[in-house]
Amino acid sequence: METSAKIAVITGAGSGIGRATALALYADGFSVVLAGRRCNMLEETADLAKAAEPRMVVPTAPGMLVVPTDVSDPASIAALFDTVKATYGRIDLLFNNAGISTRNIPIEDLTLEQWSNVVAVNLTGSFLCAQHAFRMMKSQTPRGGRIINNGSVSAHVPRRNSTPYAATKHALTGLTRSLSLDGREYDIACGQIDIGNAATTRNEDTARGRLQASGKVEAEARIDVNDVARGVAYMASLSLEANVQFMTVMATKMPYIGRG
Questions:
Q1: How do residues 100-157 score in pLDDT, each as one tens digit?
Q2: Less packed terminus of the chain by CB within 10 Å, N or C?
Q3: Which residues lie closer than 8 Å to 163 by C-beta, 6 or more apart?
Q4: Which has more confidence, 137 or 4?
Q5: How far apart are CA 236 and CA 25, in angstroms?
Q6: What span, in angstroms and rounded, lies between the C-alpha atoms of 23 and 150?
Q7: CB-based contacts of 225: which residues, under 8 Å, 6+ apart?
Q8: Cα–Cα–Cα angle for 230, 233, 237, nearest 5°?
Q9: Residue 100: CB atoms within 10 Å
Q10: How far lies 83's CA from each of 9, 26, 35, in Å?
């Protein structure tokens, strides 16, 4: 499908940060490929975009494309990028957003399956998506593109009893730096957005009470996912001559600075 709009691929686009970012990028004129496990949720994201007020785009922009994808499955990821290439012929932006976590499980009680599941989605899935995107960006004309990884403030300061999540988010920072370095000569920019307490259904317990470093359970402030989406949209709006290497978007009153 021929289009003069920029092409963005978002994983975990069926809800939360992924959905909000998809809508923000769509409003900015991107054609957005929605990837995620739940097809009905992806279609709901697409419907929300269509129901929004008319946006300023070129007439040939095709809008949103739903591609059900399991980022823990290498074959599913390969099929996603095959579809992107067959449909649009290029990719301008990858937002590695999909992620999972275990909740308040002490390290001695974690199973290998729980650890492996988090690694498969948060780290290996992000690596494979970035690898496919890198290959396309390197060979397409015009060359280049941007990769944004969804980190977390846990990439810097972990919560208690969050070993798999904190470990994979720390590793994502290494992936971000490596992609940023290796992409320089091919006009591929890579940055990371570190998010603190976005108000999604996955962390509703944060508003009720989370275990703190002190051992107390306390409620924490959260922020609207649209605040995060605007951060991603800003990073995506830059020319490839500029890069936001790391951005932190967090609730002003959350216990992050000094929380340990």
A1: 999 889 999 999 999 999 999 999 999 999 999 999 999 999 999 999 999 999 999 8
A2: N
A3: 102, 107, 110, 115
A4: 137
A5: 8
A6: 17
A7: 16, 17, 19, 20, 198, 199, 200
A8: 140
A9: 18
A10: 11, 19, 11
DSSP per-residue codes, 120-187: IIIIIHHHHHHHHHHHHHHHSSS--EEEEEE--GGGTSPPTT-HHHHHHHHHHHHHHHHHHHHHGGGT
Give dist(CA 253, CA 218) in Å, integer.
Answer: 13
**Helical axes 225-237 vs 16-27, angle rounded to 10°:** 50
Q: How far apart are CA 55 and CA 68, in angstroms?
A: 25
CB 233 within 8 A of CB 21: yes
Instruction: Indicate the DSSP class of residue 54.
Output: P
Q: Is 165 a residue of the active site? A: yes
CATH numbers and ranges of domains, the chain:
7-250 (3.40.50.720)
pTM of the model: 0.92
- Within 10 angstroms of residue 24's Cβ, the number of other Cβ atoms is 21
Q: Which of 26, 88, 165, 256 is catalytic?
A: 165
- pLDDT for residue 75 is more than 70: yes
